[in-house]
Amino acid sequence: MLTELREGVWWYECTGVNAYLVADGDGVTVVDTGTPFDAATVEEAVEAAGFGLGAVDRVLLTHYDLDHVGAAAKLAVDAPVYAGRDDAPFVAGERRPRLAGGKSLLQLAVGPLVPDVPDDRVHPVADGDEIGGFTAYHTPGHTPGHVAFVHEDRSVALVGDLVVERGGELRPSPWFISYDAGRVADSIDRFATDAPGFEAIGMGHGTPFETGGSDRLAALADR
Fold it and tell me: Looking at CB atoms within 10 Å, which of 1, 148, 177, 188 has the fewest?
């Protein structure tokens, strides 16, 4: 089911994870792509929002995990794919995650299930980069190259696994599925300070908030 969070911003569910579409004057953007088994779900969401697959101008990936990048190489689109600078080599299959705790063990175990995106389509993203109507914020911790994307005109932040929603509240990404829980906390603090105000916040897991997004994030940072 496709849910409109803001004008031109849609949320839908893939296999155990959220994904998003944003339409603006710069075209249609897919944000995260679900698992390797979710290509049809993503494509159907684009069409349900009223667009053809040829209208997709870019794919933004918040981070390298099977449930966020899995279908990126399988989509019937030829759009550029953007990922954080430290995660982009994994998306393109140029490197594999280093062995550094439970998170990397999981990534290494499921990595063979994730098709590589051709390297000529993968574009590394740095903190502060502008991609279409979005600004990228490097938010490491869950993964080294984790990125949150803010669309100021649409007043939405799409934050991947920087935070989760549980019981109607934002919570940090759990330590046992993150590379570095301390860096997750630091990234929440910095993002809450540096990002412009926004109403909607969409995360990978849990129910997105349609209003009060930046206030909720600031409250989490202050705990």
Answer: 1
Following DSSP, what letter does each residue of 144-206 receive, concatenated? Answer: TT-EEEEETTTTEEE-TTSEEEETTEEEEPPGGGSS-HHHHHHHHHHHHHHSPP-SEEE-SSS
Whether 61 contacts 87, CB under 8 Å: yes
Write the CB contacts of 198 (distance below 8 Å, at least 6 apart in sequence).
Answer: 150, 152, 155, 156, 157, 213, 214
Going by pLDDT thresholds of 50, 70 and 90, the confidence category of residue 141 is very high
Distances (CA, A) of 104 to 3, 67, 142, 194: 33, 14, 11, 29
Q: For helices 213-221 and 181-194, give the axis angle rounded to 10 degrees.
A: 130
Query: DSSP letter at 128?
Result: T
Whether the predicted model's global pTM rises above the 0.70 cut: yes
Full set of structural domains in the chain with CATH: 3-221 (3.60.15.10)
Helix (H) or strand (E) holding 204: none
Element (H, E) at 19: strand 18-24
How far, in whole angstroms, is CA 80 from its chain's centroid? Answer: 15
